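Troubleshooting: if your tokenizer reports a length mismatch, compare your output against this known-good record of 126 residues.
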Amino acid sequence: QVQYVESGGGLVQPGGSLRLSCAASGFTLPRFPIGWFRQAPGKEREGVSCISGSGGSANYVDSVRGRFIISRDNAENAVFLQMNSLKPEDTAVYYCTEVYMTTSGCSLNPVNVGPFGQGTQVTVSS
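Known-good structure output:
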């Protein structure tokens, strides 16, 4: 089974930027749609952004649209999440995994997707 490995998290001040990376452990990143999810303490996991297998379409949760950009480089075997204008409410552990496609594009539903890896911690604080 493919395992996904997230990296790039850290501590950043409000308004700052981070770039997260998602790679498949020991495998070529499948050309499946991939999604980023996050989970803050005491909250349920939520979908943040996802991208189709070709990279031609993407979806974002309303709270990050216009600030985050998802991309993929299948030649580099990675999916990226560029996070700009970060806010304290973006603080969470971020995960990536395979998602599924719907008639509206890739799905941000965190139910029945996976597997989830260890994630990478993003902390936005002054």
